[in-house]
Design a protein that fits this description.
Length: about 220
């Protein structure tokens, strides 16, 4: 009886081991099998669709380097008014200056007003005589020595020299101060090389942009 019971238990154990082995094999095969494909996702529509390049360019125009005048404003007066010695030319600017300026005479050579007024070696004085009439409704104040230049035959531009010359005063030490409608006359002095000739005289406002008067000198 003892031998038969032991045989029965052994058979039962073998059957249990076989069943366990079969279950393990099934699990292994299931883990190795490929997963079913996932369906492709459709992206949700964007609340802010992307703009094309042309649309972006139209919505955001490139910045311009050219200034645009403000509404109600006008472009400042510019340019050059030309004439011959003896002619009257307009001079104006954005500060309200409105002048009629006449080049009445070019004194070449000019003598010094006193023994202390002498040109440098190799040079001589030239006096430019101007008549300035104020056409604006307000007074005009400026320094003619700063506003007047000459051009020589060699193309060089010269600025004023402050030595006084005989027979023609330098306004009020260069200062011009005239009321509306009034006129002031004076000379601006230059030191010019003896080998050079004055061919052009200019008067303009050096601070504010505007029109320049320019005379040819024969």
């Amino acid at each position: 009886m003892m031998g038969h019971g032991a045989s029965t238990q052994t058979s039962t154990a073998s059957a249990a081991l076989a069943a366990a082995a079969s279950l393990a094999a099934v699990l292994v095969m299931a883990s190795c099998s490929p997963s079913p494909p996932h369906p492709a996702r459709t992206p949700a529509p964007s609340l802010h669709p992307a703009r094309t390049t042309s649309a972006a360019a139209a919505a955001e125009p490139a910045a311009s380097t050219v200034g645009t005048p403000s509404p109600g404003t006008s472009a400042p007066p510019t340019g050059t008014r030309t004439g011959q010695l003896g002619s009257t030319l307009p001079v104006s600017d954005t500060s309200g200056t409105q002048l009629e300026v006449t080049l009445t005479k070019v004194i070449d050579p000019a003598s010094g007003a006193n023994s202390y007024s002498k040109p440098a070696s190799g040079k001589h004085f030239v006096g430019v005589k101007l008549r300035v009439q104020n056409q604006a409704s307000s007074s005009y104040q400026n320094n003619a020595n700063n506003e007047t230049t000459i051009t020589l035959s060699n193309g060089k531009t010269l600025h004023a020299n402050y030595n006084p010359i005989a027979s023609c005063g330098n306004f009020d030490n260069g200062q011009i101060n005239v009321k509306s409608g009034a006129t002031s006359t004076g000379c601006v002095t230059f030191q010019v090389p003896k080998s050079s000739k004055v061919i052009q005289v200019s008067y303009r406002n050096t601070v504010f942009p505007g029109t320049t008067a320019q005379w040819s000198v024969p």
